[in-house]
Design a protein that fits this description.
The protein is about 70% helix and about 5% strand. The radius of gyration is 25 Å and the shape is globular. The chain is mainly α. A hairpin with a 2-residue loop joins strand 4 and strand 5. The strands form five sheets. A two-stranded antiparallel ribbon has the order 1-2. Strands 3-6 form a two-stranded antiparallel sheet.
Length: about 500
């Protein structure tokens, strides 16, 4: 096998790696945008109510950091959408009628709204009234949140495709119910869970920067106020994350049981399934409780899904049967395309295709093992997400406790821990996306289109080259982002000449 042949054989892997690289890099900016938008809205609202110039200085400082992050985040998002055409053109052709709708709405409505009001927010100080400027600040955050909504609707549809039918004449999936696509339960849950985690990430960033100011003995009043706003925001957001995470676990058990089994490293399932804290430490019945809200509920394991199993919802075919019926659907589809228009052969082929259509995507799989994602990656990513989230919650509770008692600036270990947790919060967010995306492999669209059938027919060496090109570019941009943000933080806010001494 030549090097070129080997690279072409790894086309799907390189395409997945490039998209994952771009998506992970983009997600460094999105949660900070969402979180800072909420914090700066709260801070400016307090300023408008109280008229205290220190609150205005805090609002302007967090808006400056928001602007730096927003600028680079937009650029990475554009690259991400372009890759659907360059690396995943078959995907774009087959489901573009559905997938393109939320992306178009995001670009035309949400992004333009966000971009319009961000200009007023940055340049409107002392040029518009306090109320108008406050409205622009909140509408900037609303625009960012709406952008996230439509992107997450598109992603949720990939996890659970609804509201469409496959047209064998156009070889495209066509939308039949926009409301089902936009407001299905999986989309609402994903939106609330992802956006609230973004709020927590951005607010914890505020906590970390404020803690750093207190450790350095700088901008004490602004730091105390921002620390309090950040901590309460993280607490509220974390409670939403916990609630939607529970809902997401139930939906995962129903719609993507293989992902749940991989996240738990569950080889064999059953009733009263145990939750694995780490390998060798299990809590009986907890997984069933989390997945079904019944401690005796049935949770299938990896081998159960491959071999086929039965539960309260009926019989679930084995992977071998699904692949067999998928190949039958592919054969019937080919016969339908080849048969003369209006002939009995065409009608019979269509009937045969519709009989096995739900397993159409399985026909592209070469073996049952392709249905099993990388279990160690998904398993440990889930534990990183939960572990860091638990640490973050503990830090927030301690911070609020000492803020209430007074003397938080003397709790130097806690302040250092708050600073150290900032990169860990980003790690938790990235780990969550690894669980969501790596856990549903090999599917580009769950049970409908595997990555092997969604990828563009381009040379593998070209995708490999652009992967390393983007890696270098993103690394340079990340260094630039960190340096600019660090310089802005070190410079600090422009505090008023006579700030109030009241820390509230």
């Amino acid at each position: 096998m030549t090097m070129q042949t080997l690279l072409d054989a790894l086309l799907v892997d390189w395409s997945r790696a490039q998209f994952a690289l771009t998506a992970c890099y983009h997600w460094l900016f999105v949660p900070l945008t969402l979180g800072l938008a909420l914090v700066m809205g709260i801070v400016e609202t307090i300023y408008c109510v109280r008229g205290d110039e220190t609150w205005r200085s805090a609002a302007q400082f967090w808006q400056k950091l928001f602007g730096i992050n927003f600028a680079i985040g937009v650029a990475t998002g554009i690259v991400l959408e372009f890759e659907f055409g360059t690396n995943w053109s078959n995907y774009s052709w087959i489901v573009g009628d559905i997938f393109g709708a939320p992306l178009a709405i995001e670009g035309i409505v949400a992004f333009f709204m966000e971009s319009t009001f961000v200009a007023v927010m940055f340049f409107g100080w002392d040029k518009v009234s306090r109320g108008a400027h406050l409205a622009a600040t909140w509408l900037t955050g609303v625009g960012a949140t709406l952008s996230a909504w439509w992107i997450l609707v598109a992603n949720a549809w990939m996890q659970h495709p609804v509201g469409m039918f496959f047209n064998p004449d156009t070889v495209r999936n066509e939308m039949t119910d926009f409301l089902a696509v936009a407001f299905q339960g999986a989309a609402v849950t994903k939106f609330l869970h992802t956006v609230s985690s973004g709020w927590a990430t951005g607010a914890f960033f505020v906590m970390g920067v404020s803690a750093w100011f207190l450790l350095k003995g700088r901008h004490k009043l602004l730091a105390l106020r921002s620390l309090k706003v950040g901590a309460w925001t993280v607490l509220a957001a974390t409670l939403i994350v916990l609630g939607t995470g529970d809902k997401s676990g139930v939906e995962m058990a129903q719609l993507q049981p293989m992902k749940l089994a991989a996240a738990e490293g569950l080889e064999r399932g059953g009733r009263g399934a145990a939750f694995s804290v780490v390998p060798g430490i299990e809590v009986p019945g907890v997984l069933s409780l989390l997945a079904t809200h019944d401690k005796d509920g049935f949770v299938p394991g990896i081998e159960d899904i491959i071999e086929g199993y039965a539960d309260e919802n009926g019989r679930h075919p084995s992977a071998a049967e699904k692949r067999r019926r998928g190949r039958a659907a592919l054969a019937a589809f080919s016969a339908y395309r080849a048969a003369p228009e209006g002939s009995d052969e065409k009608a019979a082929a269509l009937e045969a295709f519709e009989r096995d259509q739900q397993y159409f995507g399985y026909g592209y799989l070469a073996s049952d093992s392709e249905l099993i994602p990388c279990v160690p990656l998904v398993y440990w990513s889930f534990r990183v997400m939960v572990g860091v989230g638990s640490l973050m919650f503990l830090v927030v509770i301690l911070t609020l406790w000492f803020l209430r008692r007074g003397g938080i600036e003397r709790q130097r270990l806690l302040l250092k821990l708050a600073v150290a947790c900032v990169p860990l919060v980003y790690l938790a967010g990235q780990a969550g996306w690894v669980v969501a995306e790596a856990g549903r492999q090999p599917w580009a669209i769950q049970d409908l289109l595997p990555c092997s059938a969604a990828v563009s027919g381009v040379p593998g060496r070209g995708v490999m080259f652009t992967f390393f090109l983007l890696l270098a570019l993103f690394a340079l941009l990340l260094v630039a982002e960190v340096r600019i943000m660090s310089r802005a933080i070190a410079q600090g806010p422009n505090e008023p000449a006579s700030p109030s001494s009241n820390p509230n």
